[in-house]
């Protein structure tokens, strides 16, 4: 229904009736009934009514025209106010109407729009100006394709025009065979899409070439994507990894029930926060040491996790090797190379450390200064190589006598050993010293040149005390040394105990 130009039919019917009545009157008059006065009156009345009706119809027509003009102006203004361009072509594809936006999009084409040009003329003009970049170099073919598709497109056309402006073009055919076209400018949208595509490509390239493994997980912790580093790290292809739960991947260092429990407990949400170190297994079964950092990505429509996996396996191996080398170095730096017991440096450290500990705890600390008797004669008699061997044997015997792994036996210098006994008073130290004497005696290491007896013997000076805070540890050494001197003086192969002052 046309809301703007409503035409009423009853005035036309009334007009026709009145005209008929007048015709009847006219026929009656001409037929000799002129004398009939009432007939004249009827004729005049119907004439007057006809005139009134005609006047009413003319004014109604004029009002209808005003209404129609108003409606058309409203329509034109509304179409002009649209943010999209509107163009209407008749059935011969001639432009018959367009709005202001079309001129804004193609200001250089105004002259052609006003001339009621055909669509083909307009497109040719655009092509001649190079206004359609996608057609450059193949204008005739492009024109043909465009004509073929004209008004038949199922989805809108996306077209780049002058000044890198992008348009989305909707075309539809009207029932009378014309075409209505609507062009919406989508330059901002396309530029945004281009920027997005560029940054997506950049991100993809970064992920693909990253040295770290990168995994994306769904909200339940299942792998969505894995980069090549991840494939290399775990020995599985990206498609094999897809759908695998993160717990299965990282809890693989365990086996059996433990692994299943760990997998179930490994909720990505619980892994958020500081990067953490985890163990896993390569497809080959090789143990992996990994660092895992997880970030959450949550928008209105997306909820996923991005995991950065760093392979620490080689670094851990190197650290382990370095640790072992350092331990060896530390052991070597405190071990006597000949006998394998502690060296003088270790003895100094131990004495200092235990002296202070004993002072703090007010517990006694004992020291045995052990010297092989007439060792010069031993060397002279059996040679230095045998002398070295004798030193090794005595060191081993001493270690076996002190207990606690014998770690407190140190070579003090030459053929002299020092034995530090923690938490041991003079009586306890005496027992240990006697054990040492007996042990060497029982070993019966031949010593032809000894004036004491025909086997190796020891002289031991024993000292013990509860140290006072701030007191120097040298005091203990001096006392033990003095006791050793006394043992030598008294004929060797014996021990002398001396309570430290
Ligand atoms: N084979 C060997 N001999 C050593 C080593 N260190 C020191 N000596 C020897 O030990 C001997 C110590 O001799 P002295 O200090 O005279 O003492 P001693 O002969 O044992 O006499 P007393 O201690 O008085 O019983 C020296 O001949 C040193 O050369 C060593 O590492 N290997």
From TrEMBL:
The alphabetized UniProt keywords are:
Membrane, Transmembrane, Transmembrane helix
Respond yes or no to whether keyword Lipoprotein is given for this record.
no
What Gene Ontology terms for biological process does this UniProt record contain?
cell adhesion involved in single-species biofilm formation; negative regulation of bacterial-type flagellum-dependent cell motility
Q: Which GO terms describe its molecular function?
A: diguanylate cyclase activity
- Residues forming the PAC domain are 274-324
* The EC number(s) this enzyme carries: 2.7.7.65
**Which PROSITE patterns does the UniProt entry name for this protein?**
GGDEF (PS50887), PAC (PS50113), PAS (PS50112), PROKAR_LIPOPROTEIN (PS51257)
Query: What Pfam families does this protein map onto?
Result: GGDEF, PAS_7, PAS_9
Reactions catalysed: 2 GTP = 3',3'-c-di-GMP + 2 diphosphate
**The PAS domain, residue ranges:** 199-243
Task: Write down what this protein is called.
Answer: diguanylate cyclase
Organism listed in the record: Roseateles aquatilis
């Amino acid at each position: 229904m046309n809301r703007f130009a409503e035409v009423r039919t009853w005035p036309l019917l009334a007009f026709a009736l009145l005209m008929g009545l007048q015709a009847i009157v006219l026929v009656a008059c001409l037929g000799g009934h002129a004398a009939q006065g009432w007939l004249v009156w009827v004729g005049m009345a119907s004439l007057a009514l006809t005139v009134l009706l005609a006047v009413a119809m003319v004014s109604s027509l004029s009002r209808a025209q005003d209404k129609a003009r108003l409606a058309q102006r409203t329509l034109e203004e509304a179409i002009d106010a649209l943010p999209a361009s509107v163009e209407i072509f008749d059935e011969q594809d001639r432009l018959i109407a367009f709005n202001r936006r079309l001129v804004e999009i193609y200001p250089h084409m105004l002259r052609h729009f006003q001339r009621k040009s055909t669509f083909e003329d307009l497109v040719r003009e655009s092509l001649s100006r190079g206004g359609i970049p996608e057609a450059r170099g193949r204008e005739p073919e492009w024109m043909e394709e465009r004509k073929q598709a004209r008004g038949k497109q199922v989805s809108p056309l996306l077209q780049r025009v002058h000044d890198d402006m992008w348009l989305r073009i909707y075309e539809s055919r009207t029932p009378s065979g014309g075409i209505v076209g609507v062009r919406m400018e989508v330059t901002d949208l396309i530029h945004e899409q281009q920027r997005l595509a560029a940054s997506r490509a950049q991100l993809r390239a970064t992920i693909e070439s990253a040295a770290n493994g990168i995994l994306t997980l769904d909200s339940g912790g299942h792998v969505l994507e894995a980069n090549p580093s991840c494939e290399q790290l775990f020995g599985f292809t990206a498609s094999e990894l897809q759908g695998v739960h993160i717990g299965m991947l990282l809890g693989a260092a365990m086996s059996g029930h433990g692994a299943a429990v760990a997998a179930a407990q490994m909720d990505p949400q619980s892994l958020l926060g500081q990067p953490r170190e985890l163990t896993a297994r390569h497809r080959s079964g090789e143990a992996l040491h990994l660092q895992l950092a997880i970030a959450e990505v949550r928008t209105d429509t997306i909820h996923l996790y991005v995991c950065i996996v760093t392979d620490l396996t080689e670094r851990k191996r190197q650290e382990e090797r370095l640790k072992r080398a350092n331990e060896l170095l530390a052991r070597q730096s405190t071990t006597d190379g000949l006998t394998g017991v502690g060296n003088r440096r270790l003895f100094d450290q131990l004495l200092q450390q235990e002296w202070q500990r004993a002072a703090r705890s007010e517990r006694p600390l004992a020291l045995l200064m052990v010297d092989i008797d007439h060792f010069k004669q031993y060397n002279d008699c059996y040679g230095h190589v045998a002398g070295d061997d004798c030193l090794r044997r005595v060191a081993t015997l001493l270690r076996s006598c002190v207990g606690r792994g014998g770690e407190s036996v140190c070579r003090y210098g030459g053929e002299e050993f020092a034995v530090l006994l923690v938490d041991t008073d003079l009586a306890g130290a005496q027992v240990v010293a006697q054990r040492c004497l007996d042990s060497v005696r029982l070993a019966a290491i031949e010593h032809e040149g000894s004036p004491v007896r025909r086997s190796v013997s020891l002289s031991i000076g024993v000292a013990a005390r509860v140290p006072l805070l701030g007191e120097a540890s040298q005091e203990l050494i001096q006392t033990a040394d003095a006791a050793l001197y006394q043992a030598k003086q008294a004929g060797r192969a014996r021990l002398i105990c001396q309570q430290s002052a």
